Amino acid sequence: MIVLGSNSEIAQAFVEKILKEGERFENIYLLTSNKDLCHKFMQHLEVKYGQSSEIIELDLLNATTYDNLKHIESDLLFCATGYLGKNSAQGLYDNDNTQRIIDVNYAKLVPLINYFSEKMEKNGKGHIIALSSVAGERGRQSNFVYGSAKAGFTAYLSGLRNYLYHKGVSVTTIKPGFMATKMTEDLELPSKLTASPEQASHYIYKAYKKKKNIAYVLPIWGVIMFVIRNIPEFIFKKLKM
Ligand SMILES: NC(=O)c1ccc[n+]([C@@H]2O[C@H](COP(=O)([O-])OP(=O)(O)OC[C@H]3O[C@@H](n4cnc5c(N)ncnc54)[C@H](OP(=O)(O)O)[C@@H]3O)[C@@H](O)[C@H]2O)c1
After folding, report:
1. Which of 120, 189, 201, 211 could cross-link 13 (Cys pair, CB 3.0–4.6 Å)?
2. CA-nearest residue, atom 17 of ligand 1
3. With a 6 A CB cut-off, is 133 part of the ligand 1 pocket?
4. Is the preceding omega at residue 218 within 30 degrees of 0, hence cis?
5. Which atom of ligand 1 is the closest one to the Cα of 146?
6. Quick check: CB of 61 below 6 Å from ligand 1?
7. Which of 57, 3, 63 is nearest to 27 (CA)?
8. Per residue of the chain (241 residues), what is the pLDDT tens digit?
């Protein structure tokens, strides 16, 4: 199994979920921009599940080659990579913030996923599970740079699914609403609409087993986003969302 964004609590909860369900892998490749932080998780996998894993350092913002990834092959890729950055009120005109949001959520991430999807295509099998966001469904004033990067990523995953379908590879897009992780620790989130990492991993695992195309986490977000998508633009632009 290949994990992108291995220090994400969602990535770690999903890996734990899949191991608890009894699946084992020849190796789990933990790609991370912060090797030291990931070490404890690697040890935990060995001690609790007897599952071997390997940490591979890759900061998307600095990676110029994928030479250190040549030995990595797997039928399963889980991508939790993402960067929220500053919201519009704090960071809209901060170009470094804007660039980083675009790079981590889309521009530097897409070539990396392409790198692994090419290997899966050649093998004629595999499953890619990637976390996008409900923020990509409609641009809202509060965080539309992040939202637009996620919109691009969602469209990329949709096209990749369509392309790889004919090659025996599945692509599952996960669209989380709110999840209680380090990404959102400074935000006040409505508890009924917010998934814990364990809850999120439960729904992601279900989507994985059913080879779903798209899954919302929590499922209620599917209904919420249906409503939000259908608000006429002349009303939507007046709302403060
Ligand atoms: N939390 C939410 O409410 C929420 C809502 C909607 C969508 N999402 C999406 O769900 C996914 C997981 O989110 P999360 O809440 O677990 O966020 P998180 O804790 O911030 O995890 C995202 C991970 O992305 C990786 N990453 C960030 N910058 C990177 C870089 N320059 N190079 C390589 N990797 C980098 C990091 O992993 P390493 O430290 O291992 O490098 C980081 O731990 C993200 O795609 C996020 O956008 C989250």
Report:
1. 201
2. 183
3. yes
4. yes
5. 47
6. yes
7. 3
8. 999 999 999 999 999 999 999 999 999 999 999 999 999 999 999 999 999 999 999 999 999 999 999 999 999 999 999 999 999 999 999 999 999 999 999 999 999 999 999 999 999 999 999 999 999 999 999 999 999 999 999 999 999 999 999 999 999 999 999 999 999 999 999 999 999 999 999 999 999 999 999 999 999 999 999 999 999 999 999 999 8
Considering only CA atoms, which residue is closest to atom 24 of ligand 1? 81
Instruction: State the Cα–Cα distance between residues 68 and 125, nearest whole angstrom.
Output: 23
Which atom in ligand 1 lies closest to the alpha carbon of residue 150? 47
Number of neighbours of residue 172 by Cβ within 10 angstroms: 21
Q: What are the contacts of 53-59 at 24+ separation with CB within 8 A?
A: 53/27, 53/28, 53/29, 54/27, 54/28, 54/29, 54/30, 55/6, 55/30, 56/29, 56/30, 56/31, 56/32, 57/31, 57/32, 57/33, 58/31, 58/32, 58/33, 58/112, 59/33
Instruction: Report which ligand 1 atom has the smallest distance to the Cα of 176.
Output: 6
Residue 100 burial by Cβ neighbours in a 10 Å radius (0-12, 13-18, 19+): buried
* Cα 5 to averaged position of ligand 1 atoms, centre (Å): 6
pTM of structure: 0.98
Q: Give me the torsion for CA of 105, 93, 85, 80, rounded to 10°.
A: -10
